[in-house]
Request: fold
Amino acid sequence: MPLWGIKFVDLDDRWWVDLIIQEQAPEVSYVRIGSQVVCDGFKPTEGRVVVRKASVQPADLSEWSTDTPVVLDAAAQKRIFDLSGVKG
Reply:
């Protein structure tokens, strides 16, 4: 089954990512805040949620379109889950 991701930004310019495993592209959730409509990641789904609203830096995953589901190939998955550079 494919791994789907979406990168989105909130009104405070904080960037987030959702990752879900399921056959078809998950539906995108939008919320109205005042007069603006912003992406809020994926809608609830029957698929396996790997990550919901994980914080990322603005430059992270720069090859992803914002507010659009992307299916991740093996190379992209390896890059996302490579924690060798993480200290902690």
Summary: Residues 3-81 form one domain. The longest strand covers residues 48-56. The CA atoms of residues 19 and 88 lie 23 Å apart.
